[in-house]
What we know:
alpha+beta
Amino acid sequence: MTVQEQLAQNLKRIQELEARALAAEAKAQAAEAKAQSKDRKLSFKIGNKGGICVVGLNGRFPVTLYTDQWVRLIAVIPELQKFIADNAQAIEHRVKNPIIQPDMQ
């Protein structure tokens, strides 16, 4: 085998190793991003139009309501909890173990 052939063979091995390393790193980063998205805490911010945004509730898109809408929603939380409890069998869950308040079960 000539020196050029050895160099070409070594270069091919290096490229294969680099490709494997990059694939493994991408897989690890994807797994980490997925784990972080599951553990993401909710945060709040004021949107461009003055609405109150909940970040981390709906994937990468915030849920935005205006103050009067939040006040109305907060006022009916007991009814919402009862509705969820009464309809638990028919409601779809986006996560396997949703956090449910004890009085909602």
